[in-house]
Structures are given as structure tokens and as C-alpha cells.
Amino acid sequence: MTGPVTVAVVGGGASGCLSAIHLARAVAGRQVEIMLVEPDAVGAGLAYSTTDPRHRLNVPAKGMSADPDDPEHFLRWLRRHVDVDFPAGGFAPRLHYADYLVQTLDDAVAAAGTVRLEHVVARVTDLRRHGRRLRLTLDDGTSRAADAVVLAMGHGAPSTAWAPEALRRSARFVADPWRAGSAPAIGAGSDILLVGAGLTMADMALRWGRDGVRLHVASRHGMLPLPHASAPVPPAAPPAIPAGTSLTLAEVRRLVFARLRAAGGDWRPVIDGMRPITAELWSRMQNEARGQFLATAARRWDRVRHRIDPALHAWLAARRDDGSLTVHAASVVSAREDERGLQVELDDGSSLSVAAVFNCTGTCTGLRVNDDPLVLNLLNSGTALPGPLDLGFATDAGGRLLPGSGPQPAVWTVGPLRRGQLWESTAIPEIRQQAADVARELVAALPSPQLQRRPRDPYGLPLSASTAAAEAYVEAL
Predict the structure, then answer these.
(1) How far is the C-alpha of 447 from the C-alpha of 339, rounded, in Å?
(2) DSSP assigned state of 406
(3) Alpha-carbon span 367 to 388, nearest angstrom
(4) Segment 17-76, tens digit of pLDDT
(5) Which of 25, 104, 186, 195 has the most CB atoms in a 10 Å sphere around its CB?
(6) Which residues contact 476 (CB under 8 A, 6 or more apart)?
């Protein structure tokens, strides 16, 4: 009897759900088990775990479809389940997107007919080749076998390297606002400090900027997020990339600014029009140029590239105008705790007395300093290599892991773990396309459905094997 093949998707947030959705569609008609390994609720992940309806998507509804070939899929879902008149350019509450992903996954599995989906409530701590298959070690002490694996773990924890030791030790320091089990007591009339001025800061400002709480934002550049246009226009045509083998950062800058000058108007369509060629520009830059970009231009690029709801931008501006939000172009120098809270010194000379400090610096941290056991074990075993500049894993053009030694494993990556190879790998339009492309490549590499497979034990050994073979196998472990 021919048994089903098993594909494990590690991570059940947006990257994992999109991967499972496109796998279910790609394998329709074949007996396949999709094992979604996620310790928490499926669909939420880091980005969509909020239950606060004020936390909005940072992209209009018309740009958030799970299907790259059906751009209005999410918009139709919103109009069926949330608001019949939801505007295409509206910014939906993020809590709805998790529900949308789960329902879209359920629909894809049901439509496939021959696909079985299992949510394994655990965390993967190790992944090794085992014969012709792969074995996933879970944090509950068990292991599971798979024929192929998609790593879709999403964002890692933000770095706290910037924080003085006394601040890191304090119970009033929230190192990861989205993974914090609890927050310090913040009473009416208190001050809080948000370190970092990007999208996480905007979310935390919305959450805590009430009851008379005064907000302080500190970042090196002192720049708040920029808004989408109130009446967006289509992306501009991208510029032609000059022929050649590599590009310097100066050449890429000239390319972008020339296109901005030629547009002569709103810069937003120009930046949006760069998306189809961003991966090629990144791939044409040597590591030295990429490092210069990270050090000098990445923050400004992220600011124009990842924008917020105009209504949220207006709220932040109003808070700044009335004095309840203060922005510091500064870094934290020192911190000490006393009976009043945290006393924080900034390098612009400011002294703040705050009830809490929230780390909103983002998640672009090096792979080698990632404390995820799975990441560490993949690197230590040689199953994976760090990508360029230590940003995510090294992969081939299709997203398949490049090993440090041995044959290439049947392991693909989707989402932020591909930043080193692609740079733009954190937004839904890029992730959904990656998920669709990986699904096609992975399915083509699966064992042929005509192959006969005998039942196997948890270690990948045929149950009908002789005792002598089994003993030899155990000895070889």
C-alpha cells in the first residue's frame, strides 16, 4: 500500500499558514499529511496575536491577500465577515487577519480532499536527517518524521544589546513587547519610554497612550513612521537596472534618487514600484555594500517602505503637538531603579523618570545570536549555514537550505529567515509569493506517489526489518 508523505511546516504564524495554504493547493489529489508545528494558536504568530482592535494592518486590505493571483481575496473575506462595505484602501484590525489565515487554510485543505492537516502543539528544537527522511525533535520529548520541512518561524526576538545591564535586569524593562507574559504596573499620569521608532513603537503607543500616560520615544534618528497616502495611487514603473555583475551602494542610491526626481511628485508610488526589483538589487550588491546599507540607509529605507495607517499617523502627530508624546533623537546611556520607577539617562542630555521601558527596536538581529534551540542546532550540525551578513539562513534561489556539510536537505525557508538572500522578506506580498514558489518546488521534490512505502517506526526503520538489521541500525546510532 502506498502511504502518504508528510510535510512539516515549522511555525504557525503568517509565514507558516501561507506555506501550508499553498502546499495544500499544490498537492491536491495526492495523499499528503501537512504537520503544522506551532506551540500557540495557528494564524496569530507575532504580528497578528494582538486582540486590540486599534492595532491595524500596515497595508491596505487590497494588498493583504493570501493568494498572489487573487489580490482581492482578503478584501472579499472582510466584506463577508466584518463589514460589507469595507473599503479596498482601508486598514483592517490585525486580529481579523489571523482569523482570515485560519479559514483560508481550512478551505484549502477541504478543497484538496486528499490532504490531512495536523496541528502539533509543540516547539521544534532540532531537525536532523534520518535515512531518507527527516526527524524533528520536539520540546515535549517526542520526535516526528517528515519527508520535507518548511521553516517558517517568522521574526526572532529583538536585540537587547543596546540596553545597559541595570536596565536588562529590571522588572520594569519589557525586552519583547509581543512575547511578554505581563507588563509592569503603569498608572494614570505615568511616563513610559519606547526605545525604537518603528511599527512596534506605534502599536505600543496605541496600547499605552491613554489614561494620561505620557509617551517618550527614543531612537537614533528621532523619526516617527511615515503614513500611506490617504488616496493611494498605483506603483510607478521600476527603473531599469544597469547591466553588470555587481552594484555599489552609491550606484543603487543614484538609481533610486533619479527615479524619485523623475517622478516629480509623491515619493510613495516610486518606493512601491521598487518592490519587484529590490531582490535583484540586493543580490547584485556585494557584502561590503550590503553592510554599508545596513549601517547607513536601512532605517530610512524601512521608514519609507513600511508605512502606517494615515489615521494612526495623525494620532501620533496630535499627541506630539499636545506634548503627551516626546521624541528624542538619542540612545539610552544608563538606567537605575528606585522607588519612583526607572531613572533613564539619554545621550541628548535628557533625564527621564519612567514607569517602564519597552524595547521596540525591531527584530533584525543576527542568526548566530539567535537563542532559538532549533536555529542553534541547525547551525551546529551543519544542516544550515548563515546567510549574507548573518541575516537568516543561506538558501538557493528557490529557498532551499544550503548545508554546511553533506547533501542538501529537503528543507525550505519562507519569510524573515530569507532576509539575507532577498532583503525584502517580511511583508505579506513577498511572503505569499515565496510560499507559492516553495510549495511548487517542494512538491516536485517529494517521493513519487508510485513508490511503495512500508510502515515505519518513529526512527524511520521499516517495521518488517529483520532483528539483525534492527540491532545493526541501533548500534549505528
Answers:
(1) 64
(2) S
(3) 10
(4) 999 999 999 998 889 999 999 998 898 776 777 788 888 999 899 999 999 999 999 999
(5) 195
(6) none
